[in-house]
Write a structure and sequence with these properties.
With 266 residues, this protein is mainly beta. The chain folds into 2 domains: 20-83, SH3 type barrels, CATH 2.30.30; 90-216 and 251-265, Porin, CATH 2.40.160. It has 2 helices and 20 strands. It has helices spanning 2-18, 107-116; strands at residues 21-25, 30-38, 42-47, 56-59, 63-67, 73-75, 90-91, 95-103, 123-137, 143-153, 161-171, 177-185, 188-201, 204-213, 217-220, 223-231, 236-244, 247-250, 254-260, 262-265. The longest helix has 17 residues, at 2-18. It is rod-shaped and about 135 Å long. The two termini are 69 Å apart.
């Protein structure tokens, strides 16, 4: 008798569960319901988990399909296309740099000649790395930059000529940039002005930059020095005055062309 009672209870429970309808909305959400009316404009229903509750209504245009309790399906409208989040592509402009520098005649070149005790070729190769950080980025993609560029030059001549440059710059959305900052090398210190552009191919960025350090003119006044010099003919020290005339010196300009490549990452 108990088996018969539990069998009836099981059949009743299965029929209740199986009697529910389902609304599949175009957003993908599903609702278990008991349908009351499937009109042309509205679909009225009660929630299956609250059959004694109020009657709800859904716009027919918002429903993708109705799955009836007998298993049949009525397709009403296609599902909404899932909106994909835009893929953010970040451009990394920091990376290796190679190029060459031309040193014009002047005090800077003379100073390096003295360091290496020979006349160096004014065209020297450059190898280095560009580090950068952005301190602001506009909605249109343009950004403000802080850059640090250490370089090693003259390796093709057996020389080791280090230099380091710091720049404050601006880069447009299309990759054009300008910058200004101090530079320091064996030839002395100066102000470097840079401009460049970045060519993009897939996920690779190829920056091309031209940097210029202008020549500085230094003016010196005439200088007279006195020195006691021993005269072996007389056996006495004699006062000798030497005058270095007023003159000007030019530090000489430097111009550098660099190429590089950097990665783009998503």
């Amino acid at each position: 008798m108990k088996s018969f009672f539990f069998g009836l209870l099981f059949i009743w429970g299965f029929s209740v569960v199986n009697a529910q309808d389902r609304l599949v909305l175009r957003t993908g959400a599903e609702i278990s319901v008991q349908l009351a009316d499937t009109g042309a404009g509205l679909i009225r229903y009660k929630r299956f988990d609250n059959l004694k509750g109020p009657v709800y209504a859904a716009l027919r245009k918002d429903v993708a399909r109705i799955v009836y309790s007998d298993g049949t399906t009525e397709v009403i409208a296609p599902m909404f296309a899932e909106k994909q989040a835009p893929v953010e592509v970040r451009l990394r402009y920091g990376g290796p740099r190679i190029g060459f520098t031309y040193l014009s005649p002047g005090e800077s070149t003379d100073r390096m000649n003295d360091v290496f005790d020979r006349n160096i070729n004014p065209f020297i190769t450059q190898f280095g790395w560009q580090f950068e950080t952005r301190f602001f980025t506009l909605d249109n993609g343009a950004s403000g930059l802080l850059e640090l560029v250490p370089m090693i030059g003259g390796l093709e001549q057996g020389l080791f000529i280090p230099s380091i440059t710091g720049l404050v710059g601006y880069r447009s959305k299309k990759g054009y940039e300008i910058g200004l900052g101090p530079t320091l090398s064996l030839g002395g210190a100066g102000i470097l002005i840079a401009a460049g552009a970045s060519l993009k191919s897939g996920r690779i960025v190829f920056p091309v930059n031209l940097a210029f350090v202008p020549s500085v003119t230094k003016s010196y006044q005439a200088v007279t020095t006195e020195e006691n010099i021993y005269n072996p003919a007389t056996g006495m020290y004699e006062l000798v005055m030497t005058t270095k005339p007023a003159h000007t010196e030019h530090t000489g300009f430097r111009i550098t062309l660099t190429l590089g490549f950097n990665s783009r990452s998503k």
